[in-house]
TrEMBL record:
This protein's UniProt keywords: Membrane, Transmembrane, Transmembrane helix
TM spans (from-to): 12-31, 37-59
Top-level taxon in the UniProt lineage: Bacteria
InterPro entries from the UniProt entry: Uncharacterised_SCO3924
Record carries keyword Membrane: yes
Transmembrane as UniProt keyword: yes
One protein family per Pfam: DUF5326
Protein name (Swiss-Prot/TrEMBL): DUF5326 family protein
Protein backbone atom coordinates (compact mmCIF):
# COMPACT_ATOMS: atom_id res chain seq x y z
CA UNK A 1 0.00 0.00 0.00
CA UNK A 2 2.92 2.34 0.55
CA UNK A 3 3.66 2.08 -3.18
CA UNK A 4 0.38 3.72 -4.12
CA UNK A 5 1.09 6.58 -1.73
CA UNK A 6 4.53 7.22 -3.21
CA UNK A 7 3.45 7.09 -6.86
CA UNK A 8 -0.01 8.60 -6.36
CA UNK A 9 0.58 12.09 -7.73
CA UNK A 10 3.19 11.23 -10.36
CA UNK A 11 2.67 10.71 -14.10
CA UNK A 12 2.47 7.14 -15.47
CA UNK A 13 5.84 7.37 -17.21
CA UNK A 14 7.64 7.89 -13.89
CA UNK A 15 6.25 4.61 -12.54
CA UNK A 16 6.68 2.56 -15.73
CA UNK A 17 9.79 4.09 -17.38
CA UNK A 18 11.89 6.25 -15.06
CA UNK A 19 11.90 3.99 -12.01
CA UNK A 20 12.84 0.76 -13.89
CA UNK A 21 15.58 2.64 -15.78
CA UNK A 22 17.02 3.90 -12.49
CA UNK A 23 16.84 0.42 -10.94
CA UNK A 24 18.67 -1.05 -13.95
CA UNK A 25 21.26 1.73 -13.86
CA UNK A 26 22.01 1.13 -10.18
CA UNK A 27 21.66 -2.66 -9.97
CA UNK A 28 22.29 -3.64 -13.60
CA UNK A 29 25.76 -5.06 -13.08
CA UNK A 30 24.58 -7.06 -10.07
CA UNK A 31 21.62 -8.44 -12.01
CA UNK A 32 23.82 -9.35 -14.97
CA UNK A 33 26.43 -11.07 -12.79
CA UNK A 34 23.78 -13.14 -10.99
CA UNK A 35 22.12 -13.99 -14.30
CA UNK A 36 25.49 -14.96 -15.82
CA UNK A 37 26.26 -17.16 -12.83
CA UNK A 38 22.91 -18.94 -13.09
CA UNK A 39 23.31 -19.50 -16.85
CA UNK A 40 26.86 -20.82 -16.37
CA UNK A 41 25.67 -23.15 -13.61
CA UNK A 42 22.86 -24.55 -15.76
CA UNK A 43 25.25 -25.02 -18.69
CA UNK A 44 27.77 -26.87 -16.53
CA UNK A 45 25.04 -29.08 -15.07
CA UNK A 46 23.78 -29.99 -18.56
CA UNK A 47 27.34 -30.65 -19.71
CA UNK A 48 27.90 -32.94 -16.71
CA UNK A 49 24.71 -34.86 -17.45
CA UNK A 50 25.69 -35.26 -21.12
CA UNK A 51 29.20 -36.47 -20.21
CA UNK A 52 27.88 -38.99 -17.69
CA UNK A 53 25.30 -40.24 -20.20
CA UNK A 54 28.03 -40.59 -22.84
CA UNK A 55 30.26 -42.48 -20.43
CA UNK A 56 27.45 -44.86 -19.50
CA UNK A 57 26.65 -45.41 -23.17
CA UNK A 58 30.27 -46.16 -24.08
CA UNK A 59 30.81 -48.48 -21.09
CA UNK A 60 27.60 -50.43 -21.77
CA UNK A 61 28.40 -50.71 -25.46
CA UNK A 62 31.91 -52.07 -24.93
CA UNK A 63 31.05 -54.34 -22.02
CA UNK A 64 27.99 -55.66 -23.86
CA UNK A 65 29.94 -56.39 -27.05
CA UNK A 66 32.87 -58.04 -25.30
CA UNK A 67 30.68 -60.29 -23.11
CA UNK A 68 28.65 -61.49 -26.09
CA UNK A 69 31.86 -62.60 -27.86
CA UNK A 70 33.19 -64.37 -24.82
CA UNK A 71 35.54 -61.48 -23.95
CA UNK A 72 38.04 -61.52 -21.16
Amino acid sequence: MAEKGIFAGLPWWVKWIAVPVLVLAVFGSLIMSVLGFVIALVFKALLLVALIAGLIFVVKRFTGSSSSRGGW
